[in-house]
Amino acid sequence: MTTPQKGSTAAQERPALVEAWINTNGQPPPKGFSTRLLRLACEYDRQVRDQGGLSKANLRKLLSYADKPDGTRQGCQRKATPSKPSTGTRLVREWQGQSHVVMVMDRHVLYQCQTYRSLSEVARLITGARWSGPRFFGV
How many angstroms separate the CA atoms of 75 and 93, rounded? Predict the structure, then answer.
């Protein structure tokens, strides 16, 4: 962990953070902004002020992903697809003191020399409850 630098927001209380936010952004922080998030935002603003912000190339790249005024996306044409472990991936999950190993195949998963249609089937077999398989195995 790094030590707070001079001018750091690490020790500031919420009223001082709100004041810093207003000085930087010209308006109060959004409702529901936690003190932690406010501290992180103010610290980022301080670092930008002291060290310079993003390079023009990085700023341009970030803005390409931002919403247009009409609410549509500029840079992302489709939604991100859920990640699926690639064939051959070995998933290990410890449950109640026992390690469970699952091998991901093309159209099924292999667990204890048996094939199953999904990780959820295996998670249900292991726990006895209806778990989301990807969530249970941390995928």
Answer: 37
